[in-house]
């Protein structure tokens, strides 16, 4: 059917248009005719490889990509195909930015709904947590896989407020950027690298760390505290868009 062997293992790519020719997706959406033409162009480019099924959606397009039989690393192969396709589109259609979410691989074509949900979550989370305009695999979402399952966003907001509320309000009142500093500290292997990433002196980052701990009443050196704060920061990004 459709020139694709649906009996083999496959992965699904959900491709969202971030912006085109300097216009964000929200602006592109207002021009329905232009949006349809843009989707038509990127779909034609992506359909150049005959072993895939490509179809349009209102916010982008979807690619069903069969994987080689006996593929030793389905995740790596899926990511490579997704990155190659994204690069082809951005090269052929100057000025377009895309976010691609990649699902896990599946054997049964009946799992396509589950596959699509994974790919969309990977694209959405990738855009919010890592800035978008890249290729993101569902398996790399980590704890965000759980966070996206919450039906009530108020629960997530309450968690953020309990964990980071005092620091957020301090930044707003004092016009500081301690939340961003905390994120840098937690993502770096040590304070020295956090300082280098922030382009500040080691003593400056140490001073800010102590100030953060004072405001929140915690020790960032405690592993459970680091996990809580890291999770709260991820939720903050998920809720911000």
In short:
The chain has 241 residues and is of the alpha+beta class. It has helices at residues 25-28, 32-46, 74-92, 112-129, 144-147, 153-174, 178-187, 191-198, 202-216, 223-239; strands spanning 10-20, 23-24, 53-57, 60-66, 96-102, 135-137.
Can you describe this structure?
The chain has 241 residues and is of the alpha+beta class. The protein has ten helices and six strands, in the order ββααββαβαβαααααα. The chain has helices at 25-28, 32-46, 74-92, 112-129, 144-147, 153-174, 178-187, 191-198, 202-216, 223-239; strands at 10-20, 23-24, 53-57, 60-66, 96-102, 135-137. Strands 1, 2, 3, 4, 5 and 6 form a six-stranded mixed β-sheet that branches. Strand 1 and strand 2 (23-24) form a beta hairpin. The two termini are 39 Å apart. The model has no long low-confidence stretch (mean pLDDT 87).
